[in-house]
Every structure is written in structure tokens, then in C-alpha cells.
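Exam review. A common question shows you a sequence with its C-alpha cells and asks you to describe the fold in words. Practice with the pair below. Do the first one on your own.
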Amino acid sequence: MVAKQDFIADILPKDCLYGLTLRSGIARGHILSIKVPELPPGYKAVTAADIPGVNYIQCPGRMPCLAYKKVNFIGEPILLIAGEDQAVLRELVKLIKVEYREEEPFYLEGMKDIEDQRCRVLKRLSFSRGKINESIKNAYQIVEADYRTAAQEHFHADTQGAVALWDGKSLIVHSSTQDPFALRANIAGLLALNPRRVRVITPSLGCSLDGKLEPSFTLGGHAALLSYATVKPVKMIYSREEDIAYTCKSSGSWISHRTALDQEGNPLGMQVEITLDAGAYQLNSAHGLLKAALSACGEYNCPSLEVKAQLIQSNRVPAGIFPGFGEAQSFFAVELQAARLAEIAHEDPARWKRRNLLKRGDTLPTRGKIKEYAGGLPVLEKVVAISDFSRKHAAYNALKNRRESIANTRNPLRGIGLAVCSKGIGYQGEDHGDKGCTVKVRLELDRRLTILTSIVDNELESSRIFRQIAARILDIEPEKITIASVDTANVPNSGATSTVRTLTVIYRLLEKCCLAIKKKRLISSLPIEVRQSCKEPKEPGWDAEYLKGSPYREYSWAATVLELEIDPVTLQPNCRGIWLAIDSGSIVDLLTEKLAVRMVKGMVIRALGYAASAEHEPVDLLHILCPYEQYTVPGLMNLPPIRIDFIGSGEARGIGDLPFSGVAPAYGAAVSQATGYYIDQMPLSPEIIQKYMEH
């Protein structure tokens, strides 16, 4: 059984107050004054000056919990206010006056903006291999292109929420967070409390799409500050508009590719320059930059290469962890570059990829080798076969070549795209997120089993699989196994909840715990408690300073084919089918094929929405117009057929964010074939396709 948990919206303690946030109305400037009117009895306002501890949220980079003297993006929190009536709170927020000395904001719109004196580079990375200058010099042909992906919203199923209860001695916070222990540490810092005096309780999350990390730290901290100031329970729930407008987004990217080719169209050298937009504050963007750099050359074997990456600060909403975090941006660019190279060579993209993909025994771009590196070739062959890719690609090319112009065409424009991507699992650097992840299992006197982790149950149905593993190893009925509620007062720190960590770290730690109990119960009396933690790799084989070696412990791969047609009048794309082949070990044995397929389909649908929907732009406080119309995912009535095949064997590896890395470039390649225009940006709305035609 799983202990009963409520959703945040269902929690309403006695005498509970509500909290609201006053946000910056400008993108950049100094706060000269904050004028708060006389508040009714029982209402309380809190500013940065009232914070008893440190005024920042750390995850691992920092941003102010409440702006102090300066603001850096539209919607940055400045003041919190609590009271018993939400309607009164909304009126009071309108009466609070903030005087600014406004400065011109900086938005990174293109590479030319890097030269702006307001532009600040937060981090740079680079690595190289071979003789890149010689490859460029001796090339038969050089192909250059720039690619852009826009900042986008998570669009998770439910909004952010927190309920805080301070009784004068200790604090309890109910929060929809993926990382309850990191939230506890942040709140303890804000209130200058021993972390043991802060207790975080987390309900089930559903499909969070990594949107319940950094924003949950800010909102949980705000609810805690108001409860601390009023000595009453305080509940804060973001509206959908507030959530979309002002919480963390993906990093916008600008990626330049310069590829040197031989006479057969094979790459001799690759130069890649990556720029990511961190937004106003560097939170987790530095790690996203690293992942983008490591994925810059995709799954291709190239004798010489040079990768440069930089992280830029702007006055947009801070970027945070997002599906495909850094990798999706790089695979979008490199896979569309590969499609362009195959087109220039007048070659079937599948054939071009077969010749140039990394194979077992090849050296990684960072000069490392993975003993069991299967590469992307097996998934490529599988997806090409099940989608009939090569025949369709040739047929659609023939249709395109016979067409005089789109304006004179009545029939739908058809195209099909192919992308191959990988997911590195188990980063080997010293700051890897799995370090210290702990699982605890206890066999009670009545022979019931309790599993304790801080992994929050979500769409992965981790609680069901926890019971399945324990029941198999210890021969205990699943009904006698309890999954402890996620409460930092009772469970160990298992790290932030993510599909990859749960599948590749937590399940393995749980197996070790159960095997240890199985051995101990033969010689020890009950109760028996076992704890297992993730340790440092014995031989990392990775130099994080020089980006040399093998950065990941293992990999998963996916190949994606997407077929679409475009209405020649409205330019509205209609997806006709999506096929994926995934090599993630024996994942279906762990999850069951039905659950694994359902999870991947959900990711594919959202990735398709990201590929075609609008980007996130800074939003005026008085005109929040972005939420529902811009961020859409396909509905049940217009879902394309989706086929997912799992291949591979061995230990189960994470599926990770593979659909987010593969669907967008396959979509872009399909649009490119259908229209005859090289696609170089995402998202791709009909309006953007029209712009390609006009230029």
C-alpha cells in the first residue's frame, strides 16, 4: 500500500491565510521605494528587509528570494502579502506603489547582440579533437548554418502550490516539489533555522516535466516567510497565468554549425558554437550548457572537431531544468545539419547516417570510450524499417522536384524526417546529482516491509515498481509492502525526482537493500533496517576541467521518424505518423511494456506541441495573454498514430528525455522536405513557415 496523500489544493488548515506576490512591472532597474498602504487587521506584508536569514534561493545557482534594491526581469518577486480574503489581497496589491529607476533591458535576440555592452557572459566551455584547421583547409565543401530554439514553458498538468505552518518553534511545508530536501535547505537558510526544524511533505506530482524544481523552491520559501511573519498557516497557489508568465522556462539557444566535407559528403571536421540564454539568474543553466556542449556533435563520428559554448545573462525569466535540458537544443541543430548535408549530397538521410554514426569501439567527441557503447545504428535500422522511411522519403522528394511552386499547388505538401539522438546517464563529474542518494528499507516485526525514499510518486508509477522489486526479491505479498509518504522528517534524501534517476539509481539501491535484508533475515532478528547510498565511481575516467574522457556511465539511444503534410493555403502542418525505436536496456521488464509505451507517448505528444507552439516572451504584468492559446499540445481528436518499439538488453537504463531530443529535429526535417526550405528554428508555427517562403 501507499500512504494516503492529498494534493496541495486540498490542504486548508484551520485559520489559514492566503498569500499573494507583488511582482516587478519592469525588466531592469533599481527599486527606489515601496509604499504599502495601511493594511487591515490580520493582513501582513513582507519585503526583502524582513527576511531573517539569507535572501536567496539556491539550486545550485542563486537568485534573490525577494528583489532588494534591483530587479532583473518582468515579474520578479518584490513583496509578499498575506490575509484571510483573496479578493481583498488582490485589491491591496493594486494599492502598493513601487517607484523604479528604470534601465534599458537586454534581450538576446541573435548572435549580433553578444557585442552589446550590456551582455554578460556567465560561463564558457570548449574542447577540441584532431586538426580542425587542417580539415577546414582541405575540405571539398564547407556547409555553414545557424540554428535557434526559443525559450518555452513546461506546461505541466497542475500549477505550483505550497502550504506553510509555523508554530513558533518548527515549520511544516506542504509543497508540490520534485526535491523536498533541497526545498528544506532553502527554507532553513531563509529563516536562519536548523534544517531539522523544517519539515517538507510532498504529495504525488503527476506529470511534472521538471517544472516543479526551481519554482517550488521560490514559492515554498515565500509561503514559509509569510507563515513565519504571521505565525499562522499560509497557502499560496499560483494561477495558471502566473505560473506560465513568471516561473522558469527552457534556455533559448543559438547554435552555429560549420562542417567540412570530403568528396563523398562525409564530415572531416565540425566546428560548433553554442550560446544559451540563462535569463536573469544562473540557476541550473551551467549544467545545461555542459550537456549542450557534450551533445554538440550528436552521434556522429568526425575525425576533427571544435566545440565552443557560452552562457549569457539577459533580462528574461530565469531558465531552469527542462526536458532535454541542453541536449535537446544541440540535437535539434546537429540533426537538421545532418539532414542538410544529406540533401546536399543527394543522398537518403538514413544511408548517410549509417555511414557516419558512431559505432561500437569508436572514440567519443571528448576522446573517451564506453565499453558497452552500442551507438545509434541499431535504433536507426529499426525505425527506418517500421516507418518505411526510405521509400517515403524518395517518393516525397520526387513530388517536391516535380512541383513548380507552392502557390500553384492544391495538394498537401508532404515530408518525412529522421533524427537519431542519445541520452547520457550517470554523469561522472564530482558534482553529479546522484551523489549521496539514499534508500532505506525496513522489515518489521510483523513481517511487513516499509520502503523509504524521497522520490515523489508521479507518472512513472514508481511506488508500484518499488513494491514489485521488493516482492520479487523477498517473496513478500505486495499488500504487505508500504511506501512511506515523502516527508523529510521520516525518509532519507534520495535526490530530486526524475525518471532517469529513479530508473538507474533508486531502483538499483532498492534492489541492494532488499538483497541485504534477504541475507540478514536468516541470521538476525526482526526488525531489520538497511540503508544504501550512491557512491562516487571508482574510476571516473572524466576530466571535468578539460572536458576530456567519458562523461557518462552509460547511454540510451533513440531514433525518430515523423511524417507530415502541410496545407498549401493555410500552411498548417498535420502530423501523419510518428515512429520511435528506443534502446534503453531491459526497460520494459522493469516498467512493463504498456507503462513504458504510455510514458514515451506522453513525452512525444508534448514534444510535438513544443515543436509547433509559440515561444515564451516577456509578459507585461497588466496583460498576461500567453497561457492557453500559445502553449498547446495535440488533443485526443488530432493525435497522429504513434508507434514505439523498444530494443536492447542488459540492465534497464533511463528513457530520459529522448523524445524531446528527437521529435523536434524530425519535425523540422519533415517540414524542410515538404516545403523545400531549410528549417533552422523551433518552434515552427504556420506564421514562421510563411516567413521562410517570403524570404
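Now try the second one, then compare your answer with the model answer below.
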Amino acid sequence: DAYRKQAVAFLERNRLSTEVGLTEPTPPPASFQALQDRCLEEVQLVEQPCKQLLRQWLPRCFAGLNPLLLWFAIATAISGPTWWWVDPAWLQANAVRNDTGWIAIVVGGGAAIALVVMLVLHLVASQRAFHLITEVFSHSRAAQALFARWERMAAEELASAQQELDRRHTRRRQQREDALRKAESEFRERAAELDHWRDSEIQRLQSTSAARHGQLENARDQQLSFLSLTASSELHDCDSRRQTQPADLDAAHAARLEEFDSEHRIEWERIRTTWHSELACLTEQAEEWRRSARHACPPWNQLEPSTASGEERMVLLGHFQPALAEIEHGQPKEPDLVPQVKDWQLPAAIDLNDRPALLVQFRDPNGRQAAVELLQSAMLRLLTVLPAGQVRFTILDPHSLGENFATFMHLADVDDLLINTRIWTEPGQIEERLADLTEHMETVLQMFLRNEFATLDEYNRQAGEVAEPYRVLVVSGLPTNFSDIALRRLWNIVASGARCGVIPLIAVDLQSPIPRGYALWQNPELQRWRMIAEPPPAPNRFGVLVKALGQLAGDVRKVEVPFHRVAPADAAVWSRSAAQKLDIPIGRAGATRTQSVLLGSGTSQHVLIAGKTGSGKSTLLHALITNAALHYSPDELELYLIDFKKGVEFKVYSRYQLPHARVIGIESDREFGVSALERLDRELQERSALYRDAGVADLAGFRRARLHGQMHRTVHGWQPRPGRCRDGQDGHFRTALRNSR
């Protein structure tokens, strides 16, 4: 029906006739399945002519305004060329081309011809559509007839199935009723049997219960008689003990009291002795702590920066002075327990071995000044107790714009790294410095500690002269000018900085609220006691100490690694092979690794040592030459040493006849340097020829082939002087560099 409706709508929309002549449908099949297949086949036969009809383009020319536009287009197509090409004289017309009459005749003729063409096109379109719409209607009506026949047969089949279902249902219901009647009959029979069994059991139990009851009563009477006799005997014994026992109890009570008194006197004497002994130990321990703290952190007027060992692990801040009167039940009332010393001075210090950190809280200007002085003292102590040059301060002082810690800027006169260039105050600067500290912690964790060391202290103990400096973060007036990002970074540093050698010293202004989510660390035990802080030295003494300690740090900035740390053991001298590469140790890279120069592998073929005068270029060159000669034998390594610095560098190798040295140029001139480079150039050409003959690309391949005996590696050591490498010498030098691999 959908296809038929589409076809009819298409014809009506295009002004074509929808009347068709239908043929008689073929008789339907008798079987149900064949009828269904035939119906589906007719539906498929309707689809093809319908789609062909809808694809026709000619009928679309008569839809809507299309006929008028088509007629106008045909009329114009006929009239225009006719007016342009046909001369009126050819038709014996008494007119010219531009006459109105002639134009009307041409237009009228074109319109008539266009109308005839339109009628012909409409007839053709109707004729084509008639055949297709006839197929659509024929197959559609056949499909409808088959579907109606299929519905009737399905209804008959359904009625037959319903009758069969009703017959089966009736039969099943009759079977169920028969089964129920049979089950009821069996149930009544079984119930009668159980009733009979129950009555017989009741009669049996009644006959046996009377005899059992008599037996139990006899046993009860016998037990009562026995208990009566036993109770009389026990009662007589109790009366006898009641008359004689009080005197014994009184004597035992008196003896026990005397024993308790003796134990009490002994215990009291022990308590008194222990009390005074423990107080004496506490006094002695407090004095020992005080002396130890003063030894590690002497008074400011006695401190000499030059004598600071840098080995103490304690930063003295002041002292606590607890008293027995301040402790609940601490003051004894008994005269024997009253001590001679009733309060003690206990040093308040930062233990650098156990998560060192300092948090100070204040509420008013007086408290702020006291907190700043405590931070100053702690910073100055850190400069004295940690190894010289191993302390780097990062100071954040947004409240006073750095005025509180300006004395420490003397450290920048020696080395900017000691004070991180300046004191930082602005929010953006604070975020950047905390980000730098966070990045430093990441570097320490990933590059230094890894899974080998628990803390930076343990790493530094093994690193020795290449120890990593400690970072001290000083914050005054938190949270002033601290953004949320800065607070989050600060909290991460406080939580994880101890392992990385970051020591936070923080003063918190409690009048400024701390944002939610950042809880301050509290120690209830310390809050019980009042701490008497050690004041910093006088301003003049303060400046003198900072300058002296800064100068001491500057004096030890130069790191020297003993040569024996990188030199091979006696058994390892001349033990390496130069076939693959040269691996020459020159120093230490951290606590466990050695820094080496690799040559002859990949693009690592040359070394350029550059630096200002006195920076250690010659020292490094000597370390390279000496360690290379110790690790590789003369059969493995050959040296060309050219010295243009007046013969002061390589003379020692000539004096002691270094066996690896093929050429040693002392006080060399340009011509000698050119000849040495020419010799190297010839060596390169000879080796290239040998490589081609052997079919190899490098020294390692040639050594594996072993076609022409052992071939050593050649190192050219060049100690230049400005202006020496010119003209032809420069060309030889570039050739040697380009082909040396």
C-alpha cells in the first residue's frame, strides 16, 4: 500500500492520469507457507516498478509551475532563433525583422509549437508512467488479495489450535481431579494408621511410667536419709572450730599487722631514696645537657668562627625551666621528700638528626620581635654547627621587606648562593622561591638519594668533599603575601623536606587567619613549659660573626677530590682495553658514582677544555693524561702532547719518560705543531687504508678482525697559546678532528 500510495501521489503531483486497467489475479496457492511466500514475492515485485516510476524525470516536468516554465523555455528557444535567423522576405511577408507584427507572428508561432511539444511530452510521460503504474497496481492488488487470504487461513488455523488447546485443558483438569481424590483417600488411610500408633504408644508409656515413678521416689528417700546423717556430723565439727578459731585469728592478725608495718617502713625508705636519687640524676642530667649544649653552641661572646667544627648536630634556641610546683602533685608535702633543687634548666634545641624544623607563633608586635630574634639566633647557629659552605638560606620576609634579616646579606658579598641572592618579599617571588626549593627536593630524591640513602645526611657522609649543601627556608610573618599556591608548596616542603636536607624555620602571625586545610603543628608537651629564648648577639657582634662565617664558607668553596679516589688500584693498572672506547675517570659524581670522560664511542671523539685563567684547565688535562696512562697500557694508548705555553705543562712527562708518549713538544713553535699534525694526518690515511682492506669501519672492528696485529688508540693533547693556531696549521688540525674517529 505504501508503494502504491507513493506512485499515485507522484502521478497526481505531476498531473498524470492514475486510471489503470487491472487484470484478474492468479489463483492463490492452497498451502499456508506457499501463500506467505507468494505474498512476500508480490510485495517485492511492487517495489521495483514503483522506484522506476519515482526515478522518471519526464513526469516531473509537469509538476507545479514546471509546465509553464518548460513551455516558456521551449517557446523562447523556438521564437528567438526564428526571429534572428529567418528573414520575413523568405516567407514573402511585407515586413522587416523589427516590426511588431513580425515579432508577434514569431512569438505566436513559437508558443503554438511549444504547446504542441508540451502535449507530445505529456503523452510520452503518461505512456511511460501507465505501464509502470499498471505493474504497481497489479502487484499491489495481488499482494492485498494474498494477504487477505493469508489472514483468513491464519484465523482458521488459530481457531483449530484453540479448540485443540481447550480439549487438552479439559483432559488435564479431569486428570488433576482424579489425582486429588486418590491423594485424599491415601491421606485418610495414613492418618488412621498414625492415630492407632499414637494410642498404642500412649498406653505403653502410661503402663511403664508408674513403675519408674516408684523407683525415683525410693532413690530420693534414701538420698535424704544419707544427707541428714552427713549434715549432723558437719554441724558438730563447725561448732568445735567456732569455739577454738578466734584466738588463732587474733594472733595471726597481729603478726600480719607487724609485718605490714615493717614492709611499709622499708617501702617508704626505698621511695624516699629513689625520689632523691632520681632528682639527683635529673639534676645531673640537666647539667650534662646544659654543658653539652654550651659546648656545641657556646655563648655569642665566646664563639670564634675559625674554631667552629661543623660537626655538631644541635642548634641551641634557649632553655626550658620546669619546676615541681608547676606539675600537678609534683610538690611533695612530706618533709622527707622536699628536694633541695626545685627547678631545672633544660636546653631547648633543634636536633639536626631528627626532622629538624622550627615553628614559632606570635600574636602582637612584642611577640613578633621575639620570634624574629629567635629565627636570627637559629640561622646564626646553623652557620656555626653545619659544615662551612654547606648552608644555603632562602629568606621570605614580606612583613618587614627584609629589614629583620638584612645582616645576613653580608653572606652575598662572598657568594650569592649562600643567601639565594637576596631576601624575598613579593607574592610572585615567594611562589618562585618555593618552587625552586620543591625542584631541588625532586633533584635530591631522584638524583642523589634514590633507593640507596634514607636522608641527605647519610648521603653527605659518603659523598665527602662533594656533599650537597643543606637548604634553610626562613619564613617570617606567615601567611602574609602567601598565595594558596605558595601555602601548598610550603606545606609540601615542611612535610617532606627533612629527608632532602631542607630545614624550615617559620614564624606564624596568629592575627592573620591561616586558610582552611592548612593545620599548624602543635606540641602539647612543649606548650606546658615556658621557654626562655637565647637572644641574638649585639648588632656589631652579629655583623662580625656573619661576615666571618661567610668568609669561612667562601674559603672552602673550592672542592678538591684526592687523586687516589679516581686512580686505579695497583692490580688494575694497565688492565683496560681501548678497543671499544676510552673511559677515563676524572672525579666524583655524587656519593657513589665516578665522573668519567668517554672517548671513541659514537660522537664522543673530542674534548675541549675552556675556562678563565686559574680555573683548573691544566689540572684537568693532567688528570686526564695521568689516569689514561694508569688505566691503559702503551700497547692500548698512544699520546701526542704538544705544549705552546713555554714548556711548563708537559715537561714532567718528558722528565719521567712517560711510555705512552709518542711525541712530547716542549716550548713548541708553529712549525713543530704543523709537523705533528702532518704526522697524525698520515697516520689517519694509513689507518683508513687498513680499514678498507679489512672491510671494517672503526678500531673496534679492526681489533676484532686481528688482520695486522694490535692497533692502539691515539690521543692528541694540545696545550695552546692564543694566536698559535693559524693558516696551514689550522687546516691540519681540522683534518685531524674530522677524521680521527
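Model answer, second protein: The first strand starts at residue 314 and ends at 320. The chain has 16 helices and twelve strands. Full marks require stating both points clearly.
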